[in-house]
Amino acid sequence: MIWHITKREIYDNLNSLRFALTTVLLMALMLTNAFVYLHEHPKRTQTYHNATTKAVKELEERGANLYRLATEGPGLLYKAHSFLRFCAEGDEAYLPTRVSGENYFSDIANVRPIWRLTYPQETPNLYNIRPDFTTLDWSFIVGYVLSFVAILFTFDSISRERERGTLRLTLANPIPRHVVLIGKFLGAFISINIPFVIAVLMNLLLISTSDTVQLNTESWGRIGIMYGITILYICIFITMGILVSTAVRESGVSLVVLLLIWVSFVVFMPNTLASIGSRMSVSMPYMEFWSERNRLDRETRKAYEDKYGDSQTSPSVHVVADYLKSDAEQNERFTAKYLNQQITQGKRARSITRISPTAIVQHLFESFAGTGLERHLQFIENAKRYARGYRDFVIDTDRSDPESLHAIGVPDGMSQKPVSPEAIPKFKDTLSLYRDFDAAAMDLLLLVLFLVMLLAGSFLAFVRVDV
Amino acid sequence: MLRTLIRRELLDNLMTFRFAAVLLITLLLVVVNTVVLIQDYEQRLESYNEAVKMHDAQLREAKTYSTMYLFIDRAPNPMSIFNVGLDKRLGNLVGIWHGFVPTLWDAGKHGIDNPFIAFFSSIDIVFIFEVVLSLMGLIFAYDAIAGEREHGTLRLVLAQPIRRGQILLAKYISAMLCLLVPLILSLIFSLLVLINSIPLSASDFLRIAGIVFTSFGYLSLFYLMGLLISVMTRRTSTALMLAMFVWGFLILVYPNLIRAMVNPGGNIEARVNTVNNQVQQIVDEYERERIKFLESEGIAEEGSRFHEVLGLYTQASVDEANMMSYIENLTDISDIPTDFERYVPVAKRYFDFVEPLTIRATERVWLVRKQALDDIFVRQATMDRILLRLSPVGIYDGATQAWSGTDLQGLRDFFEAGRRYRKVLIDYFYAKDAFASRKWFVADKGAVDWSTFPEFVFERSDASTNAVRALPDMFVLIISNMVLFMCIVLIFTRTDV
Asked: DSSP letters of A335-350?
């Protein structure tokens, strides 16, 4: 019986104007998405490739001398690009693309400070005078367009039948009400999925057949998961449409209510809530960070100079090495503290947007596409782990030389033996799926919760409604 | 008769649920976002004030002319609450010195934002109107004719001695009156919140009036689009679907499709390379003349000692990415060497020759660069804007940005003022005969007195300039309204009921 009602709904929809328009719109969007991605991705990959090659070359040039390796550091560490950026661009455009392990400090009292990890601030849109654009990625197509389409497919599903009186006829048959409801739900669900799946397949066909992109099994798995999330998300809006359609007598009013809900939850809430949320934990201003860090540096240096600056004999290499180490460490700690403040602010802003299912879907897509904040945190962690490994490598290499004085950062105090370029650890940024699941579990749960609540609501409303 | 019709329509519209819902949601969105926007503005203002204080102190610290660091800061525009435009995005801090002509592409930012929240754009009031008003216009219009036709009331009305145009006019006037209520009311509420925290000038109110007028035109355009759909379709459900998809396409999809456009400037890389070569030539020429001068003074071989004594550091460099070149002749003589006095007259002659040369070279670079920057960056932005105007959103956004002064022109005004200020600085140097003075490079006989140095003031262009800039968009808006209305009248008179 359910199938019967579903079939009727689908036939109704297939012949309708909205189905045709949806198909055209979704196909146009998905094709644009694929074309833009195929146009931009090779350029991005090339830039990344050039940058990393240059960084590795510079590192290997330094390799001949352990002192230089210890002082100059590993150079710039770049973030790898995700192949799935067409699914969710996230805030990639605004996030820094690298972490710096360079040494750009000038000598202080003839002592060269050693490198430390810093997080370069970039303002990528600083010179961009083009109008504001949203990237037409999957998360936009699903989050905005598909939810809008879902509303248009369901706003009149109950109210129109009631207006026309066909609902009475249907219910006069020996069919339980929930079967009608499920039938309607499935009907709308399938009719929205048909154009969406066609559009997605065309998109993937274009992307996977191009020779600049290689989607591996993991990527396909991720795309599958994203499709699952899309289904959950569409279900939320379909259920909401049916709920409002049941509760409201006229279909015109039902549409207005739904559109206002849609506008508030989809268009306004993510941004407005994020603005409010970002004020709940404000990171220190950049100027303050800058002057505070300089002050700390000066203090460490002053403590060192007070102790050894006036003595006639120059301090021993170990004293200098200790100073250099503590200077780099406290500077790095403070920089990391500032970064953490910024990240906390970003996370606060994101967590409060979870009131809107669209924002949740955006987060989920970002997590699985390997873009956005979560991915960036992963990258920073990778960089930090690599930096530790690099430091250990320098210390171990130095230790293995019996002639060395083991004073890291002092030219005469370190091993003079050449280091082979191959032995130096190189930075490689990787994405891992397991971490994404951890980050996404909460969001998925919330999404399911939304759906269950709405399903229960629409069931109750439909069972109790008088025709 | 017209009045009766209008009254009927007005009552019909005002008593509906959709009117109440739209009013409520607009008020809520506008007020909440105004509060958020004010906080954001105040934060930016604070960081601006701090930067100004710091840069002023930096200038006063300079003991010699050549070691001066002069920065100018751009204050946040209070009108950015209405349409933020490029106000927040582009640089608000630029260095001023005679060896460089600053542009928008050389600016930095005081107070770098947290990159992890940069993604969330602040929603300005115009954006709310953009989305909600357009939706409202369509919702009020889609069943205006089609609904009456379905119900059969259209026949009844037309049976009366009324011209068809009058019916349309009555519908238009009454709907617009209704739709104006949420627009005006929400603006009044937001202004009430605004004036308590941000001082607005009289011309700001003129600009706001301009924005209201533009919003009215935008609203009317969408209402007319809805009416056109309603006249052309037989059934309300078809009209509604068409209206919704038109909305989704024009507001959600089309503005973002433009991003896929290619740059009309052609091969940018080649262009950048030619410009860089040209700039490099000018810089080389500058270097040749500088060295020729050193030779003519007979210190060419001795040059290194001359440089060493003066702590002279000359750099004429070309930044490839931005086609930028800057020329610096810095001296830093904190501890005066013993054979210093011997070089003082030569140094005075040297700087008196080299700094005007720098100014000339810089200005030649500027002429080359200005053209290229316009070709590469501005042409693409203009192209985007033109394409964007095919959607009413683009027209509305462009016009309100022009009114707010947050459009490209409004921001370029600031950099124009910065370039004028550079002229002021150069004039000041000439007036003080700074290049040929001892204070240019050493402060051993008294530091430079900066008290008479003219301060930088930047006034936003007045409301009439804003109006002139908004005029093309307003014109397009009004014309398209009129054309649409005529189309509707034509179609409506020719259809049978």
From this structure: HHHHHHHHHHHHHHHH
